[in-house]
Amino acid sequence: MTSVVGSAVEAVEPAEVTQAGPARDRRGRAVTLLWQVLLFLAFLGLWQVAHWLKLVRPIVLRSPGEVWQAAVDLVSAGQLWPNLWATLQATLIALTLGAVTGVLIGLGLALSPRVERIVDPYLSALNSAPRIAFAPVFIVAFGITTTAKVALAFSVVVFVVILNSRAGVHAADPDVIRLMEVMGARKSQIFRKLLFPVAVPSIFAGLRLGLIYSLLGVVTSEMIAAKDGLGQLVATFSGNFELDRVYAVIAVLIIAATLLNSIAGLIERRLLWWKPR
Amino acid sequence: MIFGQVRLSAAALAVIALATACGGGTDDSGTTADGKQTLRVAYQKSAILSLMDWVAQEQGFFSGRGLSVTLMPSASGQAAVATALNGGVDILYGPQSNTVQAASQGECFKYLTSGHSNTVNVIARPDLALPSKKSDAFPGGLADLKGKKIGVPNLGSATDRNTRTVLAAAGLDVTKDVTFVAIGVGSTAVAALEKGSVDALAAFPPDSTNFPAGSYQTVVDLVGHPESSPLRDVIVSHTVTTCDYLDKHPDTVLNYCRAYYDARDWALDPKNLDALSTILAKYLDMSQDAAKGMWTRYGDVWRQHPTLTPELWAAQSKFNPPDQQTVPDYATWVYAPCAAKDPRA
């Protein structure tokens, strides 16, 4: 095998190729990471400069240092972890319930075209409803409990997963389905060998989206009425104009969501090892 | 009313962040074609805090003073402060405790009028044992709330702070002995008590009229026995403007205050009870009978402090957050032409 480096043509052994590839990948990832860090530092720098120059009212724009201190205070006061856990717990429960229900309904509908045609308008109508507005209804129905938070988040997540699961099945090539039918494959075989594997990437996309929506639903519910949770902290601190603390909690939410999303991405890559990235 | 809680929860963040981000407050007030001064006044739909604004609007006192007023609903006192900071409203409402934290970060407010005194009572589940209770007057059965969950509309709200004051006065350590839970207002608050999410809660009108008979018991009646109440001096419904607005529109503010006093005189005149009940019913979305009953129960809270004297102003600081207990300077914070005496004189 040959490789062009500058103007010279060199012979490269296959082994060197296989080592150079990953090395290039690692270098590429490092450069990307470096740029990401620089971008973050630039953001912090601009933020600090805006604070120094008072480009925005001080009550609104707190410095990065103040926000960091607020986060440290939240930890040392023992406020952060219990509330973070309350939020994450409800988020993951809602996601799990929404995922199981959504995948089952989504796949079921995709495999039953007649039923799908009947329920589709209702599904679309429910999906387009601003379900966050149901938050007070769930609080009245379930009290100020984790169940109320989970119910709201579930109502948001389940439709995302249903739609993605359906879309995943519908993405299967009809010619391949016909070919399998002609070759005598049973419906269960077509589902196991073709439809489900084809749908999995779309299902995972729905789950990753559902994770974000689940967090949104839980935090919204907490902001209205809750015993605990990061949403309740945001409501309390914003009511007291302690926006440094609000930003600290939001930063924690961003970090938590990013971590959960990364974990979901990792699981997805492991399960979908065959899928090109 | 319920959705007000969503706004309450998000408003101080979203409203401030979006609207005040560009620096100093602005306003679009001016005059109408018929020469009236325009004014935007915030009011809360889920409380009687802004009653005099409703009366002044409905009875034509604003118009009579040359004002064209737009009443703008606000989810809470804190949300109203946030909106005022960006010039979204010109006059807002609330206790001293709602503004001191914003003021400590460089914002400037002027208090215009006194307002009504405490409307909060503490009620509990009907099956909660209150062995220490001898009467409805303070301290009632507050000592029996040790270890219990107490509902307040929002953590950090004026009602939350006032409830803590009452419990502390009854000998409870509010940092250890009780757990405060944010329950919102309206149906979520009623559900919180019904479903046992909380053992007791701070109830105020109109919510206090929403609890079905037999669904609660009174722990302490602070409104009916104000003389013994730790909240006897608190004013929860001052009217306030920003220094920026007052500097630019002193005449408009003075006319607002005059109309406010017109409304107060009218509302407190017993012969206007039926008409007043109609106004209350309209703004609180309740029956006229319920409104009349509520006024009979709570009307006196408007009579206790007609003007905002230096002594009354100083007394408010003890209801402020723990880190804001210093008395704000009266001359700096209070607009004397409105607050110290009847501005119509």
How are the secondary structure elements laid out?
The complex is a heterodimer of chains A (277) and B (345).
Chain A: E1 2-5, E2 8-11, H1 14-52, H2 64-76, H3 80-111, H4 113-128, H5 135-142, H6 146-170, H7 174-182, H8 187-224, H9 230-239, H10 243-271
Helix pairs in contact in A: 2-10, 3-6, 3-8, 3-9, 5-6, 6-8, 7-8, 8-9, 8-10, 9-10
Chain B: H1 2-19, E1 37-44, H2 51-58, H3 61-64, E2 67-74, H4 77-85, E3 91-94, H5 100-103, E4 109-113, E5 121-124, E6 149-152, H6 158-169, E7 179-182, H7 187-194, E8 200-203, E9 217-220, E10 238-242, H8 243-248, H9 250-267, H10 273-284, H11 288-298, H12 310-316, H13 330-333, H14 336-339
Helix pairs in contact in B: 1-4, 2-9, 2-10, 10-11
Under CATH, the homologous superfamily of the largest domain in chain A reads MetI-like
Distance between the termini of chain B: 38 Å
Shape of chain B: globular
Helix content of chain A: over 70%
Strand coverage percent of chain B: 5-15%
Give me the CATH fold name of the largest domain in chain A. Answer: MetI-like fold
Overall shape of chain A: flat
Mean pLDDT over the full residue set of chain B? 88
How many helices of chain A in DSSP terms?
A: 10
What is the count of distinct domains of chain A?
2
What Rg of chain A do the Cα atoms give? 25 Å
SSE arrangement of chain B, N to C:
HEHHEHEHEEEHEHEEEHHHHHHH
Mean pLDDT over the full residue set of chain A:
88
Describe the structure.
- The complex is a heterodimer of chains A (277) and B (345).
- With 277 residues, chain A is mostly helical.
- Chain A folds into 2 domains: 2-52; 64-271, MetI-like (MetI-like fold, Orthogonal Bundle).
- Helix content of chain A is 79%, strand content 3%.
- Chain A has 10 helices and 2 strands; from the N terminus they run ββαααααααααα.
- Chain A has helices spanning 14-52, 64-76, 80-111, 113-128, 135-142, 146-170, 174-182, 187-224, 230-239, 243-271, and strands at 2-5, 8-11.
- Chain A has a two-stranded antiparallel sheet with strand order 1-2.
- In chain A, a hairpin with a 2-residue loop joins β1 (2-5) and β2.
- In chain A, α3 (80-111) runs parallel beside α6, α6 packs antiparallel against α8 (187-224) and α8 runs antiparallel to α10.
- Chain B has 14 helices and 10 strands.
- In chain B, the strands form 3 sheets. A 5-stranded mixed sheet of chain B has the order 7-6-8-5-9, with helices on both faces.
- Chain B is globular, with a radius of gyration of 19 Å.
- Mean pLDDT of chain B is 88; it is low at 1-27.
- By secondary structure, chain B is of the alpha/beta class.
- The longest helix of chain B is centred in the N-terminal third of the chain and has 18 residues, at 2-19.
- Chain B has helices spanning 2-19, 51-58, 61-64, 77-85, 100-103, 158-169, 187-194, 243-248, 250-267, 273-284, 288-298, 310-316, 330-333, 336-339; strands at residues 37-44, 67-74, 91-94, 109-113, 121-124, 149-152, 179-182, 200-203, 217-220, 238-242.
- In chain B, β6 (149-152), α6 and β7 (179-182) form a beta-alpha-beta unit.
- Chain B starts with a helix and ends in a 6-residue tail after the last helix.
- Classes of the chains: A mainly alpha (277), B alpha/beta (345).
- The A-B interface holds A 55-61, 133, 135-136, 139-145, 220, 223-227, 231-232, 234-243, 246 and B 2-3, 5-6, 8-13, 16-17, 20-24, 76, 78, 81-82, 85, 101-102, 105-107, 149, 151, 154-157, 179, 181-184, 186-188, 190-192, 194-198, 321.
